[in-house]
Amino acid sequence: METITSRDNARVKYACKLAASGAFRRSEGRFFAEGRKLCPELARGAQLEELFCTAAALEKCPELAALPGTHFLVEEHVADKLAGVPAHQGVFGVFRTPAHTLEEIRPGWRCLALEGVQDPGNVGALLRSAAAFGFDGVILSAGCAAPYAPKTLRASMGAAVRLPVIETGALPPVIAALRQKGIECLAAALYRSQPLGAARAGAGGVCVVIGSEGQGLTAETIAACDRTVRIPMTDRVESLNAGIAGSILLWHFRGAGL
């Protein structure tokens, strides 16, 4: 195992650039992750190309040595640069980004579609909930937090590679394509909506469409959907954030057997 002692090492600089730049991640088709638990989880669904570990991390978790890819031992000051913060777990990975397209979606699928959800914590939490509740794929419109950004990956706890995540542009044409496949599209909105308890998914599949807490869904996206649903609440709160509201909806439309 090669030891990296310099913070200016080319591989270290490359990994740091992946962590910092969404445009660079997209151009390279790779992403960066940190964590003793997260990196092995991601390696189950994405190709791990390079693994950077400190001696302390390897001593604590010797099973890391069995992970695929090229391994590098890094000194603590190099790990500090990779992490960007003083407190870290000493385990970092460079992964190849999974590639998924709308053509993969089949009749009968349960999908989640997000419009303009910019908070990486909410996007990550919803990816995790979609995987937990048996959904088949997630669609992210332009303006959503990047699914393979470090903060989103941490919030998703590896769920970003456990099911297809499809990044697209505006949602209305995507919704139209899903409806042509017999997938019923349900907008989470208040106007002319039915209570969630009365909503059921048909045999042809369902797509739950969620916007951000602040902006909600655009009028065009709501109009493109089959109908709207709402989560009944007391008047003690005005709204729920996207991560919580979306998780409730995902649980309601969960896969068979859950």
Automatic annotation (TrEMBL):
Domain RNA 2-O ribose methyltransferase substrate binding: start-end pairs: 32-101
Any one of the GO CC terms: cytoplasm
A single BP term in Gene Ontology: methylation
Alphabetical UniProt keywords: Methyltransferase, Transferase
A Pfam family annotated for this UniProt entry: MRM3-like_sub_bind
Listed SMART domains: SpoU_sub_bind
GO molecular function: RNA binding; RNA methyltransferase activity
UniProt cross-references to InterPro entries, sorted A to Z: Alpha/beta_knot_MTases, MRM3-like_sub_bind, Ribosomal_eL30-like_sf, rRNA_Methyltransferase, SpoU_MeTrfase, SpoU_subst-bd, tRNA_m1G_MTases_N
Family: Belongs to the class IV-like SAM-binding methyltransferase superfamily. RNA methyltransferase TrmH family.
UniProt name for this protein: RNA methyltransferase
